[in-house]
Amino acid sequence: MRLHQPGKLVARYPTLWLVKSEIVVILLSGRNEMGPTGFTRGGYTTNVPHWVRVIMGGYELVGIIETPGKFNFGALMFESERFFMPLYSASLTAILFPNVEAESAAMIFNRRMVDAVAMLPKDEIPKIPG
User: Which of 54, 80, 91, 120 could form a disulfide linkage to 124, CB 3.0–4.6 angstroms apart?
Assistant: First the structure.
């Protein structure tokens, strides 16, 4: 797919190799495709959902990040060795090509490519059907 021609399929390949550090976002059909995503912390914690906007590499993501307790940007971005962070009820928009959009029940994004993260104000939180 080309960003300026989102409806056009460029090519089909039987096998494709990707450089993990260069992948920006992977869209998934549901949470069950994600595998284990928990944080390792001592004691009992419960995941708290936080609506966020993530700006990265020419894309804007909006969705829910789950963290143990209060939102902590430093812990989210710098604790742990994993490349990818889960985002739920998510949408993606290409900043320079706003007609390129995608929505997914779950996606993972490369946290090493993040430029900014902002918590959404209550009046900007999307309504989730159902």
Answer: 120
